[in-house]
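Re: your question about Heme-binding protein

S., sorry for the slow reply, the queue was backed up all week. Below is exactly what I fed in.
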Amino acid sequence: MTDVKDTRTLTLPGGLKVLNAAIAEATRIGQPMCIAVVDSGGNLLAFGRMDGAKGLSVTSSINKARTSALSGTPTGGAHADVEIQVTLAHESRWTNLIGGLPICVDGFILGAVSAGSGSGAQDLAVARAGAAAIPGADMYIDFKPMGAEDTGIIRGTTHQGQV
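Result:
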């Protein structure tokens, strides 16, 4: 066991590169977004709210990026049954909304990128485009959302009223 471990983190120039790539994808698909980029400690490096993006997505996009960096997983992967409890346990700074993606290279979480203001699928696509600006970043292609946003689970029931 050692007292020191190797770490890596995004720099400001890296964060801006991620932000600009995500903005380009949001522009390409015609969906204005709030886009946040954080370092490995969940600290905000870069942020942009495109003209027409939802004002309420400012906070949620920052929380998506922070959640993703600190958990090392894409947001939206927690089961819907625990979303509220975990959110409350983290003083409403944790979110399971789809669209936060860790930026992981060679097993190191460098930070995360997130997008908000579109559908979950659009948010995730824009986040992936941002992460792709960092060579070798994992795109989490096998990620399957499990939260209420994608499963249709609302307060313990499906839209058909069955659990």
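The first helix runs from residue 12 to 29. The domain at 12-137 is CATH 3.30.450.150 (Beta-Lactamase).

Happy to talk it through on Thursday.
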